[in-house]
Amino acid sequence: MQSTNDSDIESWHDFEVASRKEIIALLRGIGEKRQLVRMVIRRGTEVCVSAILDVDPDNNTLTLDGSADPEQHRRFANVGRMAFETSLDKIRILFASEEVHATTFEDTPAFTIPIPETLIRLQRREFYRMATPVSNPVSVVIRLPQDAGGGTHVFPLADISCGGIAILDNKLVLGSTIGQSYTGCRIDLPDVGAVQTTLMIRNSVDLTLLNDKTNRRLGCAFVDISRGGLASVQKYITKLERERNARLAGLG
């Protein structure tokens, strides 16, 4: 299961579910199938694996299994805002809560939160990553802030999804600080057009190449991408899938 935090939930507003009846049904389904629920705090730096124990619409409460570590249980019960991630029938489910309370359920430690007013439901296609072709490369133009040297720089993409992109920074121009954001980025999608968005660094990996040079791969999430921009990204991913399927059919 992929890591998540509040930025995920804010970025995927187009996949929001607001029907209380549907939310309750989804949460009950997750509980009945005993799906794991990741409780995430402090921008993803600490995670507690839990499960849904009870959904009580009358009292507007969702009860989750507590942490086996008493100290972690106390930290999570007092942290305030928390992000949650789980899945149901291969559909990724995200939600958040401003309130987390320690309680007991059938004499075991547990957490309660209000039943979320909204949640995000993502089909596989929404966060499926597609490698970008070497023969027709995709690039992103990023403007650096003045305190980082300023100017605009072009970076090739390693892959793309409707949640974000992976950038190859072989000259180590960009910082690798998790949470660093770059505004006004332009992704040029061949045969589709340009997409404007803010990019937030979510992960960084330094790769050593065969010639002993270092290349940096930065995983970046879309922040505040427009509905039209997201549609363009999906259109491009669909195009890549069709081209790949055609090649496979030709090989067959």
Quaternary structure classification: single chain
What is the mean predicted local confidence, pLDDT? Answer: 85
| Overall 3D form | globular
Assign a percent range to the helix content: 10-25%
Q: Ranges with pLDDT <50 over ≥5 residues?
A: none
Could you say which structural class the secondary elements and strand pairing correspond to? alpha+beta
Strand order of the largest sheet: 1-9-6-5-2-3-4-8-7
Strand content: 35-45%
- What's the gyration radius in Å? 21 Å
Record field, number of beta strands? 16
What characterizes the major β-sheet?
9 strands, antiparallel
Number of helices: 5
Distance between the termini: 33 Å
Secondary-structure element order, N to C: HEHEEEHEEEEEHEEEEEEEH
